[in-house]
Amino acid sequence: MSEDFVVRISTMASQLGLEPFRQSAIKQKLKPYGSVNQPERGLSFQDTELSDEQIVSIFGQDAPSVEFGNRILRVLHGRRTDGTLDLPLPEDIEADLQENPSVVEDGLSFLRHAYPLDEDEAILRRIAREEDPREKEHPSVLMQRGQDLGLYKAVPASQEPYYGPQSGFYQSELSEKEGDPYGKSELDRIRAENDAKREKEEAELQVQIDAEMAKAQQLHDDRSRAIAQRPEQGLETAKELRPPNSFERWVLKARNRAQTKLTLESPEIANMSAFRRLFPSLLLAASLSVGCYFYAQTWTRPKQSDRLFPDVSLSSATIGALVAINVAIWVLWKVPSYWAVLNKYFLFVPAYPYAFSNLGNLFSHQSFYHLSMNMLALGIFGLPLHEEIGRGNFLAIYLASGLIGGFASFARHVVQRNMLTTVLGASGCVYGVISAYLALHMDDRFTLFFMPDKYMDSLSISGSTILFLFGASQAFGIVAPLGKYDYVDHFVGMIVGFFSVRWWQDNGRKTEKPDKKLRLGSWWDPLLGKGK
Fold first, then answer.
1. What is the CA radius of gyration of the chain?
2. In the structure, what pLDDT confidence band is assigned to residue 18 with cuts at 50, 70 and 90?
3. For residues 421 and 439, what is the distance between their CA atoms, to the nearest angstrom?
4. What is d(CA 67, CA 425) in angstroms, rounded to the nearest whole number?
């Protein structure tokens, strides 16, 4: 076999006007296969290993072991791809050939029938590589790396009879690229799919623009006719119709990519049971809530020298970080290219929920009013609560209130079949913080910071009363909602915050030492509580 290929290569080289080469020269010019620590792998020709029955069907009753059979087939396929079938095989294979002398012939026969490639073209390319003074990797080595990375896929076995170059029919076309013996690149396939997807997207966008322009033109014509009927008023339509510019087209593309193509009648949504909708989010909420508990139990105050901002109080750093995250997500909602990710992971939609959105929506706000109200309440009640119970307990209450409250609201929407409702915002977390703080100050009196001192006692209200009013308003909103507020999220968040801080009080309460760097001052005391 080896001598036959040496003669074959030399003959082809002479026909092309190239200097024939000897076996020793080949070894010097070609980069060796494998190494001491890494034996020659060959090239995979399919995604899975051949079974024992398949090995027997290829090599007959005297077939080698499954492991050896698969290995020699991979090596032979790599040598075919590289045009180096004349080179000696790896030593471990050469040693086993004494017991199975026909495996090379049988293996090549199978590969040439099931996985055809132009071996003659591969030989010519190998000759060209040898003429290059730079040492190059064998194509099979690079292709195997590509398969490992997912850039190339093994070509499926051919179901048609093989009429390739090695069969004597040299006019057969085996590749879309002229003179390419290696098959189609996975990168080329991905590129073609992306091009087709882009063309389809552009076509759909143009149809959408045409429909919007036709609708706008109809509205413009109706207004023009209405104005024409009242010439005495001297009015005229001033708005000029025009197609969207490049920026507006970019926004439309981003909106289309962010919107799902599914409808309520789609099988993926219509056939989804309540359990399938709820269980992943329940598992995530429960796991993270348990994690909050362990975080609260194991958190210890860091050394001042270990902190990133040692001159900022712990409470200010914590609240500031939460506010910064919420503001950052709000800013991202203003950038169209992020809409697809935000819709998926930072917006809760009962119709097709993603479990991670149970956490992501706690930091997500689309309107500045929603963001500012939540962050203002977080600053007012979160700073003093953090000072009393510490960062570990505070973050545990904050996140658990939002997670459990958000899941309760989500479950309510699923049960009531409100599939097109969207849920987002830190309200559940904030209501949990408010409830926790008021639970610690049930007997304290509260008033407004601008109230004159002489009216503070008479125009103050106890923490228990404020807590009751908050809870009653949210409970009433569940029964008779006023506006588009998530009352279930708020109410359940309050329950979680209240019982969490009560548990902290009753089980080894450890009050955090006040941070000297946070000076609330006299104006803060009447705002959030005045002792009896």
1. 36
2. very low
3. 32
4. 57
Residue 423 three-state SS: strand
Domain chopping of the chain, boundaries: 2-184, 189-243, 276-298+309-528
pLDDT at 85 over 60: yes
* Cβ pair 391, 439 in contact under 8 A: no
Residues shown for the chain: 532
What is the SS3 assignment for 165-188? Answer: HHHCCCCCCCCCCCCCCCCCCHHH
> Quick check: 269 and 263 in contact, CB under 8 A?
yes
Q: 172-178: long-range contacts at Cβ-Cβ below 8 A with a sequence spacing of 24 or more?
A: 174/116, 174/117, 174/118, 175/118
Measured between alpha carbons, how far is 75 from 59 in angstroms, rounded to an integer? 16
pLDDT on residue 23: 43
Bridge partners (DSSP) listed for residue 462: 445
At the fourth CATH level, the homologous superfamily of domain 276-298+309-528 is Rhomboid-like (1.20.1540.10)
pLDDT tens digits, 389-445: 999 999 999 999 999 999 999 999 999 888 888 889 999 999 999 999 999 988 887
- Convert 179-240 into a string of H (helix), E (strand) and C (coil): CCCCCCCHHHHHHHHHHHHHHHHHHHHHHHHHHHHHHHHHHHHHHHHHHHCCHHHCCCCCCC
| Distance separating alpha carbons of residues 286 and 494, to the nearest angstrom | 17
Which tops the pLDDT comparison, 171 or 363? 363
Q: What is the dihedral of CA 324, 328, 330, 336, to 10 degrees?
A: 180
CA-based torsion, 482, 486, 490, 491: positive or negative: positive
pLDDT of residue 169: 38
463, 530 contact by CB (below 8 A): no
- 518: DSSP letter: -
Instruction: Evaluate if residue 209 carries a pLDDT over 60.
Output: yes
Please report the pLDDT score of residue 444 as a whole number.
82
Query: Rounded to the nearest 10 degrees, how much is the dihedral formed by the CA atoms of 213, 216, 220, 226?
Result: 150
Please report the DSSP string for 78-124 in residue order: HHHHHT-TTSPPPHHHHHHTTT-TTHHHHHHHHHHHHS---HHHHHH
Q: Give pLDDT tens digits for 22-48.
A: 444 444 456 778 765 678 888 888 888
8 A C-beta contact, residue 10 and residue 20: yes
